[in-house]
Structures are given as C-alpha cells and as structure tokens.
Structures
1.
Amino acid sequence: MEARMHAFGLFCPRYTEKDGGAVVAAEATVEELARELSSYLDTNRINQVRRAYYYAEQAHEGQMRKSGDRYITHPLAVAGILADLRLDHQSLMAAMLHDVIEDTGIPKDALAEQFGDDVAELVDGVSKLTQIEFRSRAEAQAENFQKMTLAMAKDIRVILVKLADRLHNMRTLGPMPYEKRLRIATETLDIYAPIANRLGMHSICTELEDLGFSSLYPMRAKYISKAVEKLRGSHREIIEDIRGKLQEKLEERGLPGRILGREKHLNSIYNKMKFKQKSFHEIMDVYAFRIITDTEDNCYRILGAVHSLYKPLPGRFKDYIAMPKANGYQSIHTTLFGMHVNIEIQIRTEEMEHIANNGIAAHWMYKNEASGVTTINQSRVDRWVKGLMEMRERADDSMEFIEHVKVDLFPDEIYVFTPKGRIMELPSGATPVDFAYAIHTDIGNASVACRINRNLASLSQPLQSGQTVEIITAPGARPNPAWLSFVVTGKARSSIRHVLKTRKRAESMELGRTLLKRSLKGFGAKLSDISDAQKQAVVNHNQVNSFDDMISDIGLGNRMAYLVARQLVSGNEVLDAPANLENAPDSKQGAVTIRGTEGLLVRFANCCKPIPGDPVVGVMDSGNGMVIHSDTCSRLPEDDEGRARLTHLKWAKDITDEFSVELRVELERQRGVIAEVANAVAMADGNIERISVEDQNARFGIVSLVVHVNGRKHLARVMRRVRNIRAVTHIGRVRH
Ligand code: MN
C-alpha cells in the first residue's frame, strides 16, 4: 500500500516472545533513532537531539501511558516519525519535548535556556494547539478549525510535530476508553487528516484516515478489509497481466519506469460507498497503477505509450504536471479501458512521487548532490511556498487555490471564539468591533465594551487567534465615529458609516429646521405659512434636489438660515438680489434653545469650553454643523458681517448633563496640597477628569484641573471650595 512505502514502522513498539510465551514490549531506544539520524544529520546535531531526549525522559519520569509503557516512549516515537520525514534537528528536539510544558509544568523559559528560543517556541506552539483542541472539543466547524490551527502556528514545523504526535496517538489508541477513542478519531478525521492533505503530506494523511476510520467504525473497517483481501486474490491474475503489458510497452519504446499496483484505502472506499452511492464492486472493479519515471518529458512519452496500448476514457484525463493541485501535487492521471476493465493510471517522476507523499516535509531537508551534505534549507521551503503562490495564475480554480494555500501558509487571518464556542474568521488586525459586526450588525451598533478571555478589554484592541471574545451591548447605544479609525473589516466600516450618515441626516434636518424657523420668525413668518410653490421656487433657484436637502444643508452649516428664510418670504424678485447681511434682523429672531445633547452636529468649542449659564453663540462650521462658543471667546469673528453669521443661543432650563471646564490653581507648595485640592473638588460634587502640575519652583506651583460640572452655579461652588484651601493663592477658569 502506498501509505506504507515509507519506513514509518521503525519506531512502533515491537513485541517479542520471551520465556514462558509472555509478551514483552521492546522499547525503541534513542540510540536506534540516533543511528537513523546519522544518515542525514551531523554528530553535533544528533547530540542535541539526544540531550532533548534525556531531558524529556527525566521530566516525564514516573509517568506512564495507558498502554503501560513509560511515557517517554511516546515523544521518542513522535521524533521517529519526523526522522522518517527527515526533518531538522530542532523539529526532532521539539518532538522529544512536546509534552513537557503541558504535562510536567516546566516553563517555556527553562526550555529556551536549555535548548534555545527556536525549540522553546516550537514546543510552546504545539502545547497551544493541544490546549485549543482540549478547550473546543465540541467545535463542529472543522473547516475553520483547520484554518485556525494553521494560523496559530507561526512556524509550519509546529504543525508537522503536531501531526506526528497525532499519528502516534492514533497508532496507539487501543487502550484508551471508548469515549476518548471516538473523540480523538473524529477529530483526526475532521481536522488533522485534512491538514496533512493541505500540506501535501499524502502518506500521513492516508494513514490518519485509515486509523481514524477503523477506530470510528471497527466493524465496517473489518468488513471492507476482508472484502478487499478476497478481491485481491481473484484479481491477482488480471493485475499481473496488465502490469506485464504496460512493462512490455515501456520497454518497447525504451522508456524507463517502475510500475506499482495501487490499492484503495479503507477510508476512501467507505467514503465513496457512502457519499457517491457506489457499490463496493463498482469501486473495486478498477485496476489502478502508478508509473514512476525519471523526467517530466518521459511522463508525457509514457502517457503516449499507454494510450496506444488501451483506449483512454473521455473526460478522465488530468494533467496535474502542467497545472499542479493547490497543495503542490503533480502527476498525470488517465483512465483506460482494456481487458474489459477500467484501468486508472498515474504517471509522475520520482521527485513528484516524493513530494506527493511528504508534501511540505519533502522540502525541509535538502541534500546537496555535489557535496553530499544535507542541510536544512529554509530558502528552499520558502521557494516552494512562493512557487505555490505563482501557481495561482495557472491553477484551474484560483478560488480554491486562495482558500487552501494563501490562507493556510500565510496566516493573514485570525480565528477567534464566540462565548458559545463558534469560530469566527477575521482578517488579522481585526478588533472586537469588527468581531461584533461580523456576528450581527445590531450587535456591532449596540457595542459598548468587551471581554477578551473573560477580562475586560478595549474595543480597539487587535484580536489574536484562539481568543474568546464576548461583546457587551447596551440598549440604545450608538456606534462611535472614532471606531472608524481602527476597524479593518469592510462590514464594520460600512455599517458604522451607514448609521452615522443616517443619524447625521436626521440631526441636520432637525437643527436646520430649528434655525430656519427662527430666521422666519425674524421676518414675522412661519414655516407652515410658506406655500409649496414658494418652497419649490427657492429649491429651483438654489439648485438643490429637495426642500429637505436644503434644510439639511442649513443644519450642516453649508447654507445660511437667514438667506433661505429671506428667499422664502420675499417672493421671486428677491431671489436674484444680492444677499444683504447687514440688515439681518438678528435681534428680532430670538435665541435657539440648546441642551448640549443634540448629537453629532452640535459640539462645544474646545477653546472656551462653555458650560450652562455662560452666554453662548453658535458658529456654523460648513459641513459639520454648529460649534458652541462662549460669547466672549477670542476665536469669534470681530467684524459685523462675521457677527451676523452667529446664531444666538440660550441654554435649556433643566440641563443635568455634565460639562468639562478647565481651572488654573496657583498655590504654595506644601505636602499633600494636591490631594487637598482634589478632595475639595470632590466635596463640591465635581468630577476630576484630569489634574496635572504645570509649573513649579521651590515655593509656588500651578495646577491645571479639568473638572466636570453641570453649570455655572456648580462651578462657583467648586471654585469656592478650592479657594478656601489655605495654600491656594489664586484660582481661575482657563479659556484658550
Ligand atoms: Mn503528545
């Protein structure tokens, strides 16, 4: 069987008869492994692997496997599997140590000190995967889980160690309790076999599949393998017959190549029966061969030769040499009809065969033909990966390519859990707000806070694979415009924009209408008295789409309420007259009432920080609505025309909101005086937003305070309290 063509068997425990017929397990030893390693690693590196072994042996001292074997036999066997794949010494060391952090409590730092950062990182990576596996066993989204597993491993060797770990656990699943066996087998079929497949590691993939299948369905596996056994006998003659004919043909044309008979794997037979509704005999009445040759050219020559021998079936020819599969697999597939049966043939070179079996692992160790030295060749691996990227252009299904290669090997996506264990896929850099919108727009819109792994966290903190994220919502909460500066998903961005835009529109209409009504009042008119015809005339004159747009423009500060009001009341003849602001009957218009909670379009100026009770005016800021200034603010226009553009405002009577105000306190320095100031503010029910010492010398200091108060009276109370402190020499409100 093709899956067994590599020497995986070496490090399985062998059972030997000892005296009295008792069966005793003879453990593989680290020296046997060292002998195998000497074929491709130097002594120094082999010694490092040995050292990792002895370290792990000591750490696991006294621990036993369910089988009764010493625990160390497991990591040793895992290293053995990786040695068969000819992986580098660091991977082997990580294999030796892979359960040390998890099972013996030795910290990562200790491993780094002993074996270097790379090995410690690898062990840590494998441990993290093991934890995830444990935590989310109920997880049904296998596809995403596969991707997450890959994304979590920054170093692809973590996956290789994990696969070898899983393979050995599957080989030794027998003594486990039934429930655990089922879980591990299911997970192997759902997660690990497909990952091996994605990485092109066909040998490990098929072995994991067959072991998983036999554990999950022991009776079906037994039945199918018996049936295969039986068929093998009755088919032997015809197989030999075909093989002979193929061999003859190759020799006749002088083409080099060895011909292997291929057998179907239990799991794939079962899947075909189950999912393709085929009978056992339909599946098995296919005779499958693989021809392995030296060069790509000879693959095509051999194709020609076999097509001349038997007729090819239409639609069954696939050239994966010219168009490799997403995982790098290359081969020619064709199906022939001959000797009254279908004959499936795969044609490939030795190198393609090696890659087909070992995938990414085939690229790890690279034997330099000239010098005979074997080296770890990271750049060769990188080239392979890059080669896969370039194949995208040639791949017949580029979506499939992107799905399987880019996402897997270049983890630019992260996978996080909902509190219920569902996996969400997000681009890397995504924040809890992106996560919230990915779940549902309504959740995104109502987000106020979040927990990451149960701890409160900022909504802007970038998420990492494996985290559990919980969004806290509040009814009536609204998206914050500041979110736009950190969200990375299109969905979050467009949803936030949409809400803000709708909200801005509603608010600009409201503010615009208020301002227009006030201006109309100055002309002794009411909005309800204006005829539709007159409104339409003004709309046409100003070249806007609708009267609503014009009102919204007023609210946004793009259009002056006074001018629109004048056009509305004065009829057509005024429309073309130049605007005359000097005659704006401002004083007669009355003031607009504000309460400070109008929304996006009414903001308080940062320079003078007005609070309720201060005389205030509004300045229209084109496109952004109104900014409220104190009417003594130095930033306000001085000239008449500018003053005419201001909107007179008055505060609503029942404001309970708090407003921030800046205070400057001059004081004599003495111990505890800052605390005394803070205390005085608190005693007057003021909230301190910020307190800082601006300037000081040996005797005097200046303290800057930003305090929240609900109005001028409240502010006066706060200031009186502070002024009463003996050390305070002066207190004043700061306006920039
Ligand atoms: Mn393990």
2.
Amino acid sequence: MTKVKAYGAQDAASDLAEMHIERRALNPDDVQIDILYCGVCHSDLHTARNEWKNTIYPSVPGHEIVGRITAVGDQVARFKVGDLAGVGCMVDSCGHCPSCADGEEQYCESGFTGTYNGPVFGGKNTFGGYSQRIVVKESFALHITHAPDLLAAVAPLLCAGITTYSPLKHWGTGPGKKVGIVGLGGLGHMAVKIAHAMGAHVVLFTTSANKVADAKRLGADEVCISTDDAQMAQYANQLDFILNTVAAPHKLDPFLQLLKKDATMTLVGAPAEPHPSPEVFNLIFKRRQLAGSLIGGIAETQEMLDFCAKHGLVSDIEMIPMDYINSAYERILKSDVKYRFVIDMKSLG
Ligand code: NAP
Ligand code: ZN
C-alpha cells in the first residue's frame, strides 16, 4: 500500500480539502497510473454534497482520469510503464453476468464498482481521480491515442464523452437524422461535437442566450433558446432523437413535443430531485419514448476515444489548480464553465 495526496469532502456540508488516502499494492492484473489531469463532472459535485443520498465519506471524486503508467503487475499484457492511460467511471464489475458478457459493465447485474464512492450496491469505499495516483485492474484502463499535448482536453472524454457517445450511437445518430441536445455543459458540449461528427443535423437547446455562438462553433447547426416558447414551437414534431443532459429538475413536456412519431428522448442528466412527471398524452399520441442511459461499457469507451482521436475531438477546457475546486463547483452551479474544468494534478504535488 502507498499513501498519496488527494482532495476530498469529509461530509456533505464542508468544502473539499487536502487529505491522504491509501492505494493498494499492485495485484498481478493491476496497473498503477500517476494522474496528470482529472476532469470535473457535475456528478462529482452531486456526490461530494450527498445530493444522491448515497455518499460514503470521506469522498474523493474524479472519474475523468488521464495519466502515465508507472508500474504494472506480473500478468499485465496491454500496458507497459511509460504508456498514457485513462480511467473513467468504473474500476470493476462481476465480469460474468449477461450485461458484463455483453461488454456493458455499467449495467452489471451485481452493480459495477464506481471509480469513487464504492460498489453501486454497497461495499468498501473507492477514491477517485482528485489524487496523485490510482491503482486499477488493467481491464478497466483505456488506451489514449490522441497526441500527448492534448491530454488534458482528453480527460473529459472518459465520462462526458462516453456518456453522450453511447446513447447517440445506440439511438442511431447519423446522416439524415435531426438530433436535439439539451444543455450546453460538460456533457452537452461533447454531445454536440460527437453528434456533428457522426453526421447528424444538430439542434442545441440552451437556457443561456450567451452560449449561442459557442454552440455553433462546437458543431450545432441550429440553436434554440429553450425558454422561448415561439422558438421551441418551430421544432414541434421535428426531431429524430433528443439527448437531455440537464443537471436540474425541469419540465420534460416542452422537449417531448419536439419528437417525431416513435422518436425517443433519452435522459442522461441525473438531478438530485425528480423532474415533474411528463404529460402522458405527449407520449401516447405519437408513440414517443422517454429513456435513460448510463455512461458506456469499457470496450465502447475505447471505441469512443478512438473515434474522437480520428475526428480530432477533445473537450473545450478551463484548466484549474486543485485548490480552486470549491470555486469551480460554485461556477458549475451557475452554468459558468466553458465547457469542462480540468484539474492539473501537478498543483497537488
Ligand atoms: P454541467 O456541466 O453542469 O451541465 C449541465 C447543463 O445543464 C448546464 O450547462 C446548463 O446548460 C443546463 N442547466 C443547468 N441547470 C439548468 C436548469 N435549472 N434548467 C435548465 N437547464 C439547466 O453538468 P454535466 O457535468 O454536463 O452533467 C450533467 C448531468 O449529467 C449531471 O446531473 C450529471 O450528474 C449527469 N451525468 C450522468 C451520467 C450518466 O451516466 N447518465 C454521466 C455523467 C454525468 P445551458 O446553460 O445550455 O442551459
Ligand atoms: Zn461524470
């Protein structure tokens, strides 16, 4: 076991602060990664503040991890010391249930083990990427094929990238499809880039009028201010798919009404309180569907990283030192981030 510096919360009410955590000694199938950068996901904030009522303290968030391999166990075959590697939202799963067998470890029937906050159905706590180092099974580590100088901007792909790539692909995003993205935050801005790269016609729905120009630069063909009923009405029955990334409870009906017959709106945003229940008639009269999606499997995460490398896609980031994290959380709550904070882990040194 080694002791490393980390940053975390001792309880729901206090700010994150420096602490020390233990990293396990390497198992034969483990890799040790010295963390260079870690993205800041809204889920980190939900967890640090116990908004989902399941946080185990102390809590060290961070599941958009990139770094360099500094040691490997005896049986490790896919990584060597010196390689760049990434870790996303999961560090383990049962490995043999039908979901794991399908390569969809995020839906593991026994519950996957989160990179932070422990196994989904309870167990020993795990500590995330706001730390100097992580030890992880090689089967949950990802290869980075982007140019090394893009590394900090690759970090957010490990959650924001895969959480949007997976449903966009699953629901058939591609040429000839008109796809709506709701919310231009960390997830939303990656969704715009990825849907555009998949060849869809992208409509971004935002509550922030000051994000219109950015949305177009990022790949949106059209931008609609979702609080403007007249603008929303123009898209009635138009969209083949909507990916909703909003982190707060809001009315779903105005978006459901924009779907074509048989089309789906998928929620990936995970607010602490439920959305108001949608109007059933908005679903039944056009056989529309309301769905959800959770991150993506490990093989699909590698596929997403390779897709993004091929298409030159990374996150738009604002680099911060570790001790800025509490201010960063406040800015996330004001939708004031363009479009992902990434922690330079040297600052924890
Ligand atoms: P984020 O960067 O804070 O972005 C959320 C965006 O939602 C904001 O930028 C804003 O966009 C919009 N928004 C915020 N408050 C709003 C409100 N009251 N009404 C309407 N729109 C609002 O968050 P994120 O990191 O992208 O994460 C988004 C959500 O996804 C979080 O709940 C997170 O926990 C969840 N998540 C889920 C998964 C999964 O596997 N399903 C994975 C990762 C994260 P505009 O300014 O453009 O309106
Ligand atoms: Zn996340």
